Amino acid sequence: MPKKKITAKDSLKAKTEINTNTPIINGHHCLDYLGGYSDVGYGWVRDNSTQKLAHRASYEIHHGPIPKDMLVLHACDRRSCVEPRHLRVGTQKDNAADRKARPKAPLSPSDKTAIINDTDDFNAIGRKYNISRNTVKQIKGLIP
Ligand SMILES: [Zn+2]
């Protein structure tokens, strides 16, 4: 029997959740992707036999093809977010400018303690604090 095809659209629909702890941007909270993540904190979705980055797949589904060599940028600065109204295309330069305009608040010592004691999986912790899974592991002392 042929394997059932799963499109990126199906994957996104099945594995997202509105995160009401996030600020409202463009009229909407973040829509967090709950599936698999890359080490740097971007979601992966299955698109038939290939894998796509979740936020790029969401952009393509809602806004159309991404021009060659362009990035999909987050208005909310949260890599786990796939809310189409938080996504726009931009260049590497735009991305760097965004980052400069919006420096990330450093984690406080109490955040770090909370992360160390948090028994959720690394992806879920990363979503709560908007950090990558690798950063979670570093804070927990699991990787250098
Ligand atoms: Zn968002």
Summed up, what is this model?
With 144 residues, the protein is α+β, with helices and mostly antiparallel strands.
Could you please describe the fold and organization of this structure?
With 144 residues, the protein is an alpha+beta fold. The protein has a domain at 8-104. Helix content is 35%, strand content 17%. It has helices at residues 8-14, 54-63, 92-101, 109-117, 122-129, 133-139; strands at residues 16-19, 30-33, 44-47, 50-53, 71-74, 87-90. The strands form three sheets. Strands 1-2 form a two-stranded antiparallel sheet. Strands 3-4 form a two-stranded antiparallel ribbon. Strands 5-6 form a two-stranded antiparallel ribbon. A hairpin with a 2-residue loop joins strand 3 (44-47) and strand 4. The structure holds zinc ion (ZN). Zinc ion (ZN) binds at residues 30, 74, 76, 78, 81, 83, 86. Residues 52-96 form the HNH nuclease domain. Residues 89-112 are annotated as: Disordered. InterPro entries: His-Me_finger_sf (IPR044925), HNH_nuc (IPR003615), Homing_endonuclease_His-Me (IPR044930).
Give the topology, please.
Elements: H1 8-14, E1 16-19, E2 30-33, E3 44-47, E4 50-53, H2 54-63, E5 71-74, E6 87-90, H3 92-101, H4 109-117, H5 122-129, H6 133-139
Antiparallel strand pairs: 1-2, 3-4, 5-6
The structure holds zinc ion.
The site of zinc ion has 7 residues, from loops.
